Task: inverse folding
């Protein structure tokens, strides 16, 4: 019966647009035959209704011709596929799965993201030492048996280099057990292990079954005393066995709040590299490379226009190029400097009308506190939460530097960065925080009207 249905599909394919066929007809499968009725399976209820209203006639016509009038059609929604059981997080793999990775599998193991390799990393004055150190570690070129610490703000290439290191190591020796994990996931695994009496498996996973540990966002460990102790023991064993360890963070170890001195010492026992915001020349090179990868033809004037305004990080540039490409294709418009300016407006906020004093006033009024409260050294939530919100809003709605924001509340730039990331994390998991940020943002926009 599948043969008959496939013949019907092939005849329909030549009579309707290719996109319509791919979207509506191709997903249909023949589930069963009862008496003289073919039972076809649709992906969902919406698909079934659409087929009944728009394609039932042509399907019956082709079936009648091929089946010589012996068959009828019936549609039903296919039963959902059974979910695969959740994998055991402590089952030892050669390589821990990376987030946002393609599903390509080779030799039973998921591959590193091919977008994050050394040859696709744009090198400039802002990152050339980090690039050189990462490549030396990955290729064993003049590299001592010490950890590498990549320090940078979000979106400047820490993850790119981390993945590139793992990719290059596995190219040299596919048998290497390279474990990539974020500090948050490391904490969650440890909590799972403690709750389920499997802490020995957790320890063995990272101490005995790991050749290369790539640990991202270690600033997340601030204040997590038990996890810091466990990680410290793990790092000691890896160091004694001459294993390679790579850390990334948006804060230097000495600036991570509530970080134990012992762990901070271990994190800084090797080479620390910094990735700065890309300078103008590097931004031009990044835009040229990224636009080429997206098959987007840009004039020199347009590239320099984008480089001038898109100065925050690489993600901002990538997003602007995707928007520019989409706008050009969907509107059938030529990519011009004017079109680029329209895209820039969506990615670079007009910050000229908002000052840090405006934000301080709005935050203090909202929480009913004095401005001096934001400068308090107390870590109690009634003080720290308004202060963190103030910092987050300053970073996103003014052109003030970290140092300027820090001076306004008697803090250093690292503490300012950490406070901003605390709110950024809460926005993902706490709707109350998101509503407060949205409300205060609307208040700030009212200042500019």
Result:
């Amino acid at each position: 019966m599948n043969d008959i249905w496939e013949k019907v599909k092939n005849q329909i394919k030549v009579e309707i647009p290719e996109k319509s066929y791919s979207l509506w007809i191709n997903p249909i499968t023949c589930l069963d035959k009862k008496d003289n009725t073919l039972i076809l399976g649709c992906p969902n209820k919406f698909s079934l209704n659409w087929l009944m209203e728009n394609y039932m006639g042509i399907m019956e016509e082709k079936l009648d011709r091929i089946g010589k009038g012996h068959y009828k059609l019936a549609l039903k929604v296919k039963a959902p596929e059974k979910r695969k059981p959740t994998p055991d997080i402590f089952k030892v793999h050669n390589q821990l799965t990376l987030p946002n990775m393609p599903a390509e599998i080779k030799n039973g193991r998921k591959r590193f993201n091919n977008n994050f390799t050394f040859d696709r990393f744009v090198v400039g004055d802002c990152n050339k030492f980090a690039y050189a150190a990462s490549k030396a570690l990955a290729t064993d070129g003049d590299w001592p048996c010490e950890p590498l610490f990549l320090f940078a703000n979000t979106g400047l290439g820490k993850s790119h280099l981390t993945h590139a290191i793992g990719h290059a190591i596995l190219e040299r020796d596919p048998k290497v057990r390279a474990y990539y994990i974020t500090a948050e996931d490391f904490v969650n695994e440890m909590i799972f292990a403690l709750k389920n009496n499997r802490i020995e498996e957790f320890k063995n996973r990272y101490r005995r079954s790991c050749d290369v540990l790539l640990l991202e966002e270690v600033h997340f460990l601030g204040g997590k005393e038990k996890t810091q102790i466990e990680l410290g023991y793990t790092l000691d064993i890896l160091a004694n066995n001459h294993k390679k360890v790579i850390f990334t963070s948006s804060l230097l170890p000495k600036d991570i709040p509530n970080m134990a001195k012992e762990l901070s010492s271990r994190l800084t026992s090797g080479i620390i590299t910094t990735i700065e915001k890309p300078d103008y020349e590097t931004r031009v090179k990044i835009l040229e490379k990224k636009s080429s990868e997206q098959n987007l033809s840009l004039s020199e004037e347009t590239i320099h226009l984008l480089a001038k305004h898109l100065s925050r990080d690489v993600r901002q540039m990538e997003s602007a190029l995707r928007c520019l490409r989409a706008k050009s294709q969907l509107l059938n418009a030529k990519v011009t400097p004017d079109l680029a300016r329209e895209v820039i407006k969506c990615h670079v906020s007009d910050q000229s009308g908002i000052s840090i004093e405006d934000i301080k006033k709005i935050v203090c009024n909202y929480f009913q506190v004095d401005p001096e409260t934001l400068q308090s050294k107390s870590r109690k939530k009634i003080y720290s939460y308004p202060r963190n919100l103030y910092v987050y809003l300053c970073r996103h709605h003014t052109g003030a530097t970290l140092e300027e924001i820090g001076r306004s509340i008697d803090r250093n730039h690292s503490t300012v960065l950490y406070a901003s990331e605390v709110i950024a994390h809460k926005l993902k998991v706490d709707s109350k925080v998101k509503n407060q940020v949205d409300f205060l943002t609307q208040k700030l926009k009212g200042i500019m009207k």
Observations:
- The chain is about 50% helix and 10% strand.
